[in-house]
UniProtKB/TrEMBL annotation:
It comes from Bradyrhizobium guangdongense. The keyword Transmembrane applies. GO terms for biological process: signal transduction. This is Histidine kinase. Residues 24-274 form the EAL domain. The keyword Transmembrane applies. The lineage of its organism: Bacteria, Pseudomonadati, Pseudomonadota, Alphaproteobacteria, Hyphomicrobiales. The chain holds residues 530 to 809 of 809 of the full protein. It is found in: Membrane.
Length: 280
């Protein structure tokens, strides 16, 4: 942007900037409407007990059913929702929807909900969670909350106390995307997690990078010492799954077992189905 670049460059730059800003404003307005008009949907992806192969529960993943653009994945609007504060009503919607849906599933199935660090700054988050449980009738033991490391970096003491409160009523806590952030192992010992979810980037490189095996096996050893379970995210092939089982991973999630699907397409028949138990 030097002077010699001339006036035209400034104009083009400014136009590109304002076009981007305009697109952002449009998206923000649309997202605001989407929340008000219930265009957000919660899809569910199963996670499995690696030892028995049984389905243990589902992770709730938000999608935006845009009237013109179709189904928009969360990577395209969560960051914006966080910047604008819209993540607060969005997150409450997902939490309530997930609890209500899970309340009708067989009672051995858990539901995992992602919470944004921004939601942690809301003074009433605990009340919001309790209300979602109360209104749905879901037992707190069936709710798992997934958070990323960023929650541990900021406001560590407050967030630690908050996590203890959640655990106090029986909610499980999972550390999501482990290995991608500023992971300091000290966080693992300092915070009361029940589960560590190893990021899918490690699973992706598992079959062609011997080092990934070493990393995963270290995480498993560490987690065991801390009395935490380990989930492998993004398991796509049975070869990966076999390797992960051999490495001692407790849970597995990924396209191999099922993609995220709308609630209407979730097949609840199977080993843990209500009808089978009733028949037994
Ligand atoms: P995440 O919580 O780590 O969720 C797992 C992501 O991995 C999901 O992407 C899922 O579709 C994808 N995935 C699962 N199995 C596989 C696999 O085998 N291969 C590959 N390549 N991908 C797999 P999705 O649904 O696009 O969500 C992306 C991220 O958006 C989530 O990552 C989470 O951080 C965020 N997110 C989604 N829903 C919510 C929400 O309700 N609230 C908040 N705060 N964040 C959310
Ligand atoms: Mg997650
Ligand atoms: Mg993850
Ligand atoms: Mg993530």
């Amino acid at each position: 942007r030097s002077k010699s670049a001339g006036r035209n460059c400034f104009t083009i730059y400014d136009e590109a900037m304002s076009a981007e800003l305009e697109a952002r404003n449009t998206l923000e307005g649309d997202l605001r409407d989407a929340i008000a008009r219930c265009q957000l949907e919660v899809h569910y992806q199963p996670f499995m007990d690696a030892g028995t192969g049984a389905r243990r529960g589902f992770e709730a993943l938000v999608r935006w059913r845009h009237p013109v653009r179709g189904l928009i994945p969360p990577d395209q609007f969560i960051a914006l929702a966080e910047e604008t504060g819209l993540i607060v009503p969005l997150g409450e919607f997902v939490l309530r929807r997930a609890c209500a849906d899970a309340a009708s599933w067989p009672s051995d199935l858990m539901v995992a909900v992602n919470l944004s660090p921004i939601q942690f700054k809301e003074a009433d988050l605990f009340d919001v969670i309790c209300a979602a449980l109360h209104d749905s009738g879901l037992s707190p033991q069936r709710l798992e909350i997934e958070i990323t490391e960023s929650v541990l970096l900021e406001r560590g003491a407050e967030n630690h106390a908050f996590m203890e409160r959640l655990k106090g009523i029986g909610i499980e806590l999972a550390l999501d995307d482990f290995g991608t952030g500023y992971s300091s192992l000290s966080y693992l010992t300092a915070f009361p997690f029940d589960k560590i979810k190893i990021d899918k980037s490690f699973i992706r490189s598992l079959t062609h990078q011997p080092r990934s095996s070493a990393i995963i096996s270290s995480i498993v050893t560490l987690a065991r010492g801390l009395d935490m379970a380990v989930t492998a995210e993004g398991v796509e092939t049975s070869e990966e799954f076999e390797r992960l089982k051999a490495l001692g991973v407790n849970f597995a999630q990924g396209y191999l077992f099922g993609r995220p699907r709308p609630i209407a397409e979730i097949e609840l028949d199977g080993p843990s189905s209500r009808s089978q138990r009733d028949a037994a």
